[in-house]
Design goal:
Length: 293
Amino acid sequence: MSTVQGRLRIAVQKSGRLSERSLDLVRDAGLRVVKGNNDLLYRVENYPIDLLRVRDDDIPTFVADGVCDLGIVGENVLEEVRNGGPTAEVLMPLGFGRCTLKIAIPPTLAYDGPASLDGLRIATSYPKILRRWLDERNIAADIVTMRGAVEVAPRLKLASAICDLVSTGATLEANGLAPKETVLDSQAVLIKSPVAPEAGLQHLLDSIIERMAGVVSSQGAKYVMLNAPRSALAAITAILPGAGAPTVMPLAGRDDAVAVHAVCQEAVFWETLERLKAAGASAILVLPIEKMM
Ligand code: PRT
Ligand code: ZN
């Protein structure tokens, strides 16, 4: 049973790379978040829900222990704190906070595949993930655990290689390091506690999860409307990216053409519109989708 009577709790990063997008997701799911005097806890005014704002490293444990019912955290953090105990269930990837945990080396170091790391010292903030990766490949390397500024370790002669998160690659470049191996691909995920909430809150929990899934799947999705010659219908439908069965409707006074409406789950680029037009489509409209269930 959740520790706070009568209220659900969602753990989000207090301040960092995931904070803003986590709050956006919560808000897009219809929760009105009120920032009170308490910095640790934000209240939701239209539902019995609180947001617990903590360091991202604490989120997996809070959710696994049932202190929070849901949490938003990077897969990298989730993997690093994984131990033999109860774990939070990963419900869905959220499409933000994308990064890759990479092994990088200075260009002066000879490299011919993972075996070249044998006997080296590697600096990282992710010792457990790195150790697992090395063990799987039978590589005996020393790991130096650093909490930040991992990229300076080779210059300071603390280590000869690093294993750190990369998004744009600018940090590696600025420090003269070259990425060599991908240890983990990561993004933010929604996690759920193995501890059930109070009976009266289960329905609300299920509904919040379903709404968040709707928000995530509507991101990037577009509603496309166009007119098409009947003869080109099959070709035009095939061009629409990630559309299921589109709705086809008659056009008043036109036997040779139809209106096509479709939800496209994948990005609709200008190139897609140009191909649709070349296939005979006209009056093409692409609209954003606000909610989807
Ligand atoms: O205080 P708290 O513990 O909550 O925050 P934190 O400092 O541990 O984490 P924070 O806010 O930096 O990152 C939160 C999460 O964002 C991470 O756990 C990842 O899941 C995700 N994320 C996405 C990243 C990056 N991209 C990222 N680029 N986390 C860190 N970085 C760092 C990386 O460590 C390196 O220093 O950014 C630098 C590299 O970036 P590029 O763009 O130069 O490649
Ligand atoms: Zn952290």
